[in-house]
Design a protein that fits this description.
The complex is a heterodimer.
Chain A: H1 5-13, E1 24-25, E2 31-34, H2 38-49, E3 64-67, H3 77-93, E4 97-99, H4 109-115, E5 124-127, E6 141-144, H5 147-156, E7 162-163, E8 167-173, H6 182-193, E9 202-206, H7 208-211, H8 215-225, E10 232-234, H9 239-248, E11 268-273, E12 280-282, E13 290-292, E14 303-307, H10 308-311, H11 314-324, E15 334-338, H12 342-350, H13 353-360, E16 363-364, E17 385-388, E18 404-407, H14 410-419
Helix pairs in contact in A: 2-5, 6-8, 11-13, 11-14
Chain B: E1 2-7, H1 14-17, H2 40-47, E2 56-59, H3 71-78, E3 82-85, H4 90-99, E4 103-105, E5 116-119, E6 123-126, E7 131-134, H5 140-147, H6 151-162
Parallel strand pairs in B: 1-2, 2-3, 3-4
Antiparallel strand pairs in B: 1-5, 5-6, 6-7
Classes of the chains: A alpha/beta, B alpha/beta.
The complex binds iron/sulfur cluster.
């Protein structure tokens, strides 16, 4: 019996020939990522070493990545103090994959890791962030863990007591219609499977629509796999993975390709055809409350947001700019754009997208998590409604439990910015 | 005996348990004050000390979905609360186990605020209604961490073994 991609990677991580769902392992970690919550990881890491008499040392400073993104530049003295404490720890431990609050190399962790070539096919990647699933787009088993679990990884280099999850194969067939995006595919899948349909499961994506999808699009599907509860969402690495790693991430050393066996055993297979897919919208207050855009058209929007680790990449900003160029954001609607990394921001500047967006009335903010999680900028007023390309619409997510958040693709968001109401981007009537 | 003090529905996210705007507060000693901060009444009762340790929150399915923030587990643990849910999202469940927050997965649970529950390893008896509901035990991988008293002592022991120091 063959192995799924995740099973192969788990087996490799413990130097075993094979593993099966339910096996309990201590997989060796290829990359361990944290952001500002490294402040808590450091605290728990010190707890583990307490009274042992051992020198406080991480297992491998070159395999730890720390990226400041959630609250950059710091919104409060408390955050600034946490960031300072992390900086000191990074220096003391010699951690090299550290991304500061900088325009030239900063950004959101789930963009920084891929664009710097830190993630490779076949790796075990863990991060103290639920959207660590993002890195499955490059053929790594990548999942979110808590701070205490990360502290144990920093100490030991392994994740303790991991149960190998069964895999659900998701086959996506067909050619996407114009103005329908990978975001619409994953929203549709989450609506179909529900917010818990993937709990304790791994997704493995296949099909003709996946073959033709850019890494940027794959990152969207992997990113939001966690919104269906999945531990991880994987794409078997292919030519596109190699192209991305070589051309965009600048990887020059050897890249190991790893594939699921043809006779792999999946818990189940879900097949969808996207050739007639409508743009999708996740309605308040759960990500699985998904409707085709035609059912929510006309809803008045106070704030449009384009950005985040889901849809803040160059192609997302490009489509928004192409829709808004020479036009104006509707009065009574605000539009906020935050690129996923400093690199993307500069590329968007060079391509003229930032100018097009600003001329249209959008506010282009520094790269980082921005208003995605409601601690920093772009909070909503009571009764306000946002339409956002981010990945969560839970009550209170954008800083106010008395507001509403709808989720959509960059095209839907940009078109709706022009009209001030939720609008189908395929109509072209803007 | 444990009293049900709060009841919530399905898909309660970690944003609801511990809102994102308090995420700069990380230490387990400081997080409890913001537990269910947007459910003002319950939060106030906690902060006034009106809720006894060992009291129960009853939840629907997929409790703790969303963000991996560990504050969501530590804030509940800080008040000594027990979570009884129909099902629990993966990262939250692991965080709870790691920190020693007691969680009970009870797919059929029926209980209202004010009910008295008796919690056994394999079942919950609702003393107020007389009904009994079976409990899904934690997987062995998680049970081992619970028995060690949480992930910190569990990891500490492994670290000491590996680096050749006696416990
Ligand atoms: S952009 Fe939003 S979802 Fe992504 S890492 Fe930041 S806070 Fe999390």
């Amino acid at each position: 019996m063959g192995a799924t991609l995740a099973e192969k990677i788990f087996a490799k991580s413990v130097q075993r020939v094979s593993v099966k769902p339910g096996d309990v392992l201590e997989p060796n970690v290829g990359l361990a990522m944290s952001h500002e919550n490294a402040a808590l990881v450091i605290n728990q890491f010190k707890e583990i070493f307490k009274d042992t008499g051992l020198e406080l040392r991480v297992w491998d400073p070159s395999r730890i990545a720390i990226i400041f993104d959630h609250r950059v530049p710091a919104e409060s003295a408390k955050t600034a103090n946490n960031q300072k404490k992390i900086r000191e720890f990074v220096a003391q431990q010699g951690i090299t994959k550290f991304h500061e609050i900088r325009g030239d190399e900063g950004g959101i962790c789930h963009q920084i890791l891929p664009e710097n070539g830190y993630v490779r096919p076949g790796m075990i990647v863990v991060g103290t962030d639920s959207h660590t699933t993002t890195h499955g787009a490059l053929g790594a088993v990548a999942w979110g863990i808590g701070a205490t679990e990360m502290a144990a990884v920093w100490a030991l280099g392994r994740v303790l007591n991991v149960e190998v999850p069964p895999t659900i194969k998701i086959v996506i067939e067909g050619e996407l219609p114009a103005m329908v995006a990978p975001k619409d595919i994953i929203l549709y899948i989450i609506g179909k499977l529900t917010a818990q349909g993937g709990n304790f499961r791994v997704f493995e994506f296949h099909g003709s629509a996946v073959k033709n999808m850019s890494t940027s699009g794959r990152l969207v599907l992997s990113n939001m796999s966690v919104e269906a509860g999945a531990t991880s969402g994987l794409f078997p690495p292919d030519e596109e993975t190699l192209r991305y790693l070589r051309e965009e991430a600048g990887v020059t050393d050897e890249i190991e390709m790893i594939a699921p066996d043809p006779d792999a055993e999946y818990e189940k297979t879900v097949t969808i055809d996207v050739s007639k897919l409508e743009p999708q919208v996740a309605c308040p207050h759960t990500v699985d409350n998904v409707k085709p855009v035609s059912e929510v058209e006309g809803r008045k929007i106070d704030q449009i947001v384009i950005g985040s680790c889901t849809n803040g990449r160059l192609d997302d900003i490009a489509i928004a700019a192409s829709i808004l160029k020479g036009k104006k954001v509707a009065r009574n609607t605000r539009m906020l754009v935050f690129p996923a990394s400093g690199r993307i921001y500069r590329q968007a500047l060079e391509a003229g997208y930032v100018k097009d967006l600003m001329d249209a009335g959008a506010v282009v903010m520094n790269s980082g998590c921005g208003c995605c999680l409601g601690v920093h900028q772009g909070a909503l007023a009571d009764g306000e409604v946002a339409l956002s390309t981010t990945n969560r619409n839970f009550k209170g997510r954008m800083g106010n439990p008395n507001a509403e958040v709808y989720l959509c693709s960059p095209a839907t968001a940009a078109v709706s910015a022009l009209t001030g109401v939720i609008t189908d981007p395929r109509k072209g009537a803007y | 005996m444990a009293k049900v003090v709060f009841k919530v529905g399905d898909d309660v996210s970690t944003d609801a348990i511990y809102p994102g705007r308090y995420m700069a507060t990380v230490l387990p000693t400081e997080t409890p004050q913001y537990c269910f901060a947007d459910h003002k009444e319950f939060n106030e009762r906690l902060n006034k000390g009106e809720i006894e340790a060992g009291s129960v929150i009853v939840a629907g399915s997929n409790f703790g979905c969303g963000s991996s923030r560990e504050q969501a587990a530590s804030c509940l643990k800080g008040w000594g609360l027990v979570v009884v849910a129909k099902s629990i999202a993966r990262i939250f469940l692991q965080n709870a186990v790691n920190l020693g927050l007691q969680t009970v997965i009870c797919p059929e649970i029926e209980a209202e605020v004010g009910d008295e529950l008796e919690i056994f390893p394999d079942k919950i008896v609702n003393k107020s209604t007389g009904k009994t509901f079976s409990v899904i035990p934690h997987a062995p991988a998680r049970q081992a961490i619970i028995e060690a008293g949480g992930l910190i002592p569990y990891a500490r022991k492994k670290l000491m073994q590996e680096r050749g120091v006696a416990a």
